[in-house]
Amino acid sequence: MRLGIISALAEEQQGLVEAMRGPATLIHGKRAYTLGQLWEIDAVCVLSRIGKVAAAMTATTLVEKFGVTHILFTGVAGAGDKTVQVGDIVVAEALVQHDLDASPLFPRFEVPLTGLSHFQPDPQLSMRLSRAAHDFLEQDFLDAVGEGERRAFGLLQPRVHRGLVASGDQFMTDRAHLAGLNAALPGLVAVEMEGAAVAQVCHELGVPCAVIRTISDNANENAAIDFMRFVKSVAAQYAFHITRRVCRD
Ligand code: ADE
Prior knowledge:
With 249 residues, the chain is α/β, with parallel strands linked by helices. It has helices at residues 16-19, 52-64, 123-144, 147-152, 175-184, 195-205, 223-233, 235-248; strands spanning 2-7, 21-28, 31-38, 41-47, 70-79, 89-97, 118-119, 160-167, 188-192, 209-217.
């Protein structure tokens, strides 16, 4: 196995490159790819930057140039449903591009000429992620996230959810927009800006992938402020400990 690990921003992957044995960094397509041994696993870490094109370019490069056999996307997301709270963890069971609409030529959300709207991540890798997320919450959480942060973000008993993740080239800050998506996409648990693009690339190249997201905001009018605060002080702890557990599993 050679695992490609993608995040949009540095805070969503902080500490992983530092934890690598024998790291070597290569620049390609204006991104830094760091190869090395991450705990038990041969890995390549990279920051995609934000958005579906950036993520698709990065995933393609990981497979075609760096020979990864699996891809893991780790980062934050907005809550896609009222049952999902800030600090909860979401493992994607399916991914859809919520801003893709070529109707009336093709059904809303369908990727034209593929017959597909939803892409499924790899069940085994996703199961490994779910286990790692549960173990993180049970065993690492209280040590990893300080009391001040837990209180500031109201992180009482974070939970792990499995469900539909919707990606689009929009930072969601509108309650009504989210409600519309929620009605159109049953099982929606999170909104973000990269996962479904990575899932489509991986589907087309035949590479297993999985997506895990920590909820940073409620995708409403406060989303930008909540997102910035969460990314600055909490996101890295989740990403580091969960990835460590996945690699050691
Ligand atoms: N990632 C984190 N929060 C988000 C939001 N509200 N919209 C899109 N992507 C996000």
